[in-house]
Amino acid sequence: MAGTIGGASAAPNSIGAEGDSIAVGFNANDSCDDLLECIGNFGADASSSFATGWSGASVRTYMGASAVNTQQANGASWMGHGPSQSSALVDAGGAHTVVLSFGGNDLLQPLGGTIPTKEEIRSKVRASFDALSNAPSASRPAQVIVNAVPKVTLLRTLMKDRKHFAFETCQGIWDNFSGPVSRDLKVCDVRWWNPLSWLCGIANLMQKWTNWVDGLKSAVVWAWDAVGTPRFPGGYVLNSAAPESNRTLAAARQVEYNQVLAEETAAYNGRNGVKFVYSSALGNYVFDASQVSQLDCFHPNRTGQKAIAQMVWNQVRTSVYPMGVYAGTPGTGSTDTSPTVDTTAPVIATGWTGSWANSYTQLRQTVPTARGNASDLSGDLTVMEVWAQNYGYDSAYACVGGAGCYIGKVREANRVHDIMIDFYSGNGYLDDAGNWDYWRLNVKPQDHRGNGTTIYSGSWY
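User: That's the sequence. What structure does it adopt?
Assistant: Structure tokens below.
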């Protein structure tokens, strides 16, 4: 049995994402070996996104999310899109976990552009965090994972002299597709399903003799125009005409932006019950050339996307709630004030209710808690620890010892805890051993905050 529990917040099994081209998996699918095939691969490879992809390692697959709310877009930045993507995510129903990944495009201004200051970035970060933490409870996330801005200047140093699939060097494509085309480039390759494959041999031979594929350079630009921007972005850093002072400033601002993200994440953590978690992993990572897309020499390919997902998850996995678990809302006014004297732990009140939500695969229960004594307000803000125990014919799920299997914690105001447990089995009714098992919940109430210096835990129920 696998279980998740949820409080009164956004869709309990969903993940949302905001961010830029890295978050959409732009140009991640670089598995190609000729011009026409590679052009066909230009664009977002959503299945490989480190945040919301489904074909391999991603924050989504690590957390087991079954639904997504995707707002990320190629070319997005903190200055131009951070707050608006947060608002759009909330308007679309929110998500249990939101992954934020902006900042690269704030540094990668056009040639002759201006990089935003850290305080300008801070204002947009706060506006975005406000939109998420102040969202209505029905669309407010349980947690937000905030990713650092990558080292874009180091990526340029790594890739600028390497070969591009169509140009002699990566610098050739970065300089607005003006570099010399590789004479080793294949125009197309023989495919058994393509009746015109016989032309590929002639086209490839002519390329070696005449370099006539130089005329096809416009096709590469057309592909970029169709799915990206008219000219290669980030000229402020990437273009060979940019002065070195540009890259020096961009490197310094990257450090400043990440300081802002770390500071604001700490400041907002816990606001209206939303956990904000900062991951510095992407900001410190030095990519290997094998992890960079051969389509543009800049974006992570599928291997790079997998590496990002792994390092981000390894850094935050012990700090985030499991999918479906909410902290709840801390309440307002007098119910958010701990009494000065509290010597009794909150208890579970009578009147548990429970029902199957659908097809005997989702069990929903409402568990009330009571104040520890007449002057104790902490019962209104109780943390509820929840375990599930196999109490049937066999131990197929191994949740039979002690309190059973740990599911998670919920914390909601007004002393009512709404818990949903999803049961996953092959046929929806029987367990893996083919038996009809009974399950029972074990819960333990605990003060949400210390009254004085003591946090009191109740008994198991």
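The longest helix spans residues 244-268.
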